[in-house]
Amino acid sequence: MRLEVILPEGHESILVQPHDQGKRLSEILRHENIPLNARCGEKGLCNACQVEIAKDGTFETVKGCQFVLEGFETLTVRIPQNSLLAYEPEVQEDYRINVPVAHDPLCGNEGLGVAVDIGTTTVVVQLVDQATGKILSRASAFNRQMHLGDDVLTRINQCSTDDSMTAQFQKAIIDETINPLVDKACEEAGVSIDEIKGYSIAGNTTMLHLAAGVNPKPLGYHPFEPVFIDHVSLKASDMGLLPPSAQVHLLPGAGGYVGADLTGGVFASGLVYDDGPCLLVDVGTNGEIIYKHGDTLLGCATAAGPAFEGSGLTCGTRAGLGAISHITFDTDPFQATYELIQAERYARPLGICGSAYVDILAEGRRKGFLTATGRWDTDSCPSLSDNLTSYGEYGRALRIAYGQGQREIVVADPDVASLLQAKAAIAAGILILMKRTGVQPADIKTLYLAGGFGMHLDLQSAIDCGLLPGFRVEQIQLVGNTSLAGAFLSLLDKGVLEELRRIGKEMEVVELNLDPDFEETYIDQLCLP
User: C-alpha distances in angstroms, 64 versus 36, 387, 508?
Assistant: First the structure.
């Protein structure tokens, strides 16, 4: 069997061996180094790996992770850009540090150190001269664990049912992600990888378990107790990092779902020294929230799901090049005006990313074409009808643009429902933590907004759609990738490690599902303000 693959930038011809027939298309392509964006772990639960196959002279859309190669002599497959795992991410590498920076390096005063932020979706490394504290270079990429499972829970569940997956996830993060990034950073800085003396690694608790080769299975069931949560010191050879002689420090967290990425953020943002009331909010695959008021330090993670990263949405995509990042609307006549990430490289959009979805919710409510419950309102905006199309049994979809191959870029009724659920989970988490000390949004001194998603949000849209309910723009301070900031500060000053441990031990981790007011608060926040 011959597989003719039409890619956005070229064409490949693959000879499929007889013993490979009967395998899924995604598996064949992965072995040919053309991995599909199988965000659900190849379970067929999302549409991220959709491809077009030639059938009876026309192209038919199928899910690459479910389509079996059987009964064909020659098969032509057309793969759109956003169905490839390899499309370029927009990674947040910058951060704001609100604490004094000392210089007492964690791994000695000589050679190089590497600060690493392992995110569920993306990974960033910084190469640092330990003698001067100067950042020599940076490199970032998608976390290669993505093609095995899109989110934290999927990865935990896979390890729970098959212990061998733990080693596969470790290989994906160490061999296929961090080591190549470190090699790239060293090449850019003109230094040898053998000069690296140590690593400081931050990330959520699951990511650190998988990087260390430890099965995170206990995080999948109550009481969600991690195998380790304190600082762990290893040799690079124990994990497969390069060079083998380097020291590795996995930073301490606070709990199963409030990890070292959050303790680092609490320190780097200065929240730990702020009497408050103040908040640190990181909106990602999991919405993580830290609240401080006097001596009270509370943390929680909300099950927001990956909707704000585009997963499970009809035309959703991560914040990669060519994605729609912001949208505004005119209503007379109805028209969408959008911005693309690096528009100069893409004539048509690949899909819609999270920051644009927030705009859609806020603008829809402001301009009157979305009701409080997220329904399209043609009575208030008659010209909306021209852009609404049928979405089969799932209702209607709003056409935003035309993408590659004149594919309609739409927002469907189920998409709006998923987005309302995601924003309600985060909003309810914020409100429940503040309620513990009788504080309202207007009383918050500073809301530190962390993460790449926060850096690209239109803040007024985030407020207007209820993601940040009842706040004002002037209360919000963007602090960027505070997880990376925590890793960097730990590398520069070994005293930071003890501060992170203290933060983790003093923080009370709140399980929102056990709070008697959470369900009612969550339901209230499902509506648009």
Answer: 7, 29, 44
